[in-house]
Task: structure prediction
Amino acid sequence: MEVYDKVRKLSEVHGNPCTSKITYGTAGFRAKADTLDHVFFRMGLLSVLRSKLKGATIGLMTTASHNPECDNGVKLVDPMGEMLEESWEPLATKLANATNDELVDVLQEIVSSQKIDMTAQASVFAGKDTRPSSEALGNAARDGVMALEAHFTDFGLLTTPQLHYMVVCKNTHGKYGEATQSGYYKKLSEAFNKIVAENGCTGDLIVDCANGVGAPKLKELAKLVSSNLKIHVVNDGTAGKLNEGCGADFVKIQQRAPNGMELGANKRCASYDGDADRLIYFTLNEKEQFVMLDGDKIAALIASIFKDLLKEAGIELEVGVVQTAYANGSSTNYLRGTLLIPVSCTKTGVKHLHHRAKDFDIGVYFEANGHGTVILKPEAEEKIRESAGKVEGVKQSCVSTLLAYIDMINQCVGDAMSDMLVVEAILSTKKWSIQDWATMYTELPNRQLKVKVADRSIFKTVNAERQLTSPVGLQEEIDSVVSKYNNGRSFVRPSGTEDVVRVYAESDTQEHADGLAKEVESLVKKFSK
Result:
């Protein structure tokens, strides 16, 4: 049977109902799970074409991250563990929305325009989260891969960062690590245990896993670090729904502890999101007030340890931090003014931060929501490794510690488990409590709101999404409102994944931040009518 005949036959099973259009964005495709069968089948097809073009294994992840359990989504992972190349996003969108009759024609257009050799071998790695819909949708993607006669490896339940890790390990022929879950746990845990062996970790860590796939995976990792760090997993999926009243997104927006967790003064607590690529820390202070340590605080902590270790090792490399408009103003001022570390601002979306982070020798990027990692230029990493044999004493110890941190970091993508171990190792090294970390700098009180609007597409932004150009006149009114508040700052941007507009506001007090957010929310509603 001709290969495209197989596609036609299986597309009848996974037909496009043509009820709505869907767009591939930073988070891939996301929608209600019961509308996605044909999309998954087609992304199986597209992953094979991408694999043939690149001559490498491509990843296909079934997840909707922090979205409600009723949703699902699919994203492709490029050969070096990156997100799908941006130029292929329109191709994914066109293929997903093609009618059944158009499907093979669109496939052939992609093959022709990208000059793909259809006789080349192809390989796809797949993983899925714990949503009830993930099994069936993952099978639809498998049908797409098999229709084009490619090799398909299904890892079953994985965190999203683990799939990214598997892909880059496979395509570097083991140089980055072993393309197995046990290899992933071994690499991270050995690096962690090496750093904290001297001091250990003070106090246990309680982790909210959002009732998601991070729970069983963290339990496996926890066994390997238990001699140095005791981890207690809550919201592990045995009760409660995925991301409902829990998870990193809930904690960040609500600024309170998730359901199922009791806080205590100075207790270290953390939250993952549904697919474990975001990490947020939090605690209570001595006054029983909630204290959140988000992506900004994590970035500052990591950037500080890299700068300190490089200085002590006598290695000259530039450490830089990449943020978005959601970064707290105090964090930016602290990085630039106190740590003397350069800071760059990009549009929201980790693909933008990841790309900008490559401009630095060592780029630390985090969105305020807790999604981020560290990227080293190959020549920077090589410089550190080469110095290991050229220095002695304290300098040698610093180089050894730097190399352990490099092994502990998942450079492909934000990884809650990896980032968590890095944070714990730094706190151990500095002999800091979570309150010591919290007082690195004092955040400006802030508030985020979601505003439902009839058409989010009318909201257009510039200047790394910090200013609006449309609707006309709205930015001027926002500026006028902001001017009334001490240390006031606010911006509005359309969500990339939901039918809402997001409002961010910060000021000198929580009351003022809340008031500013409410005023801007009213303006958004006024201009969206």
Notes: The first strand starts at residue 29 and ends at 32. The radius of gyration is 23 Å.
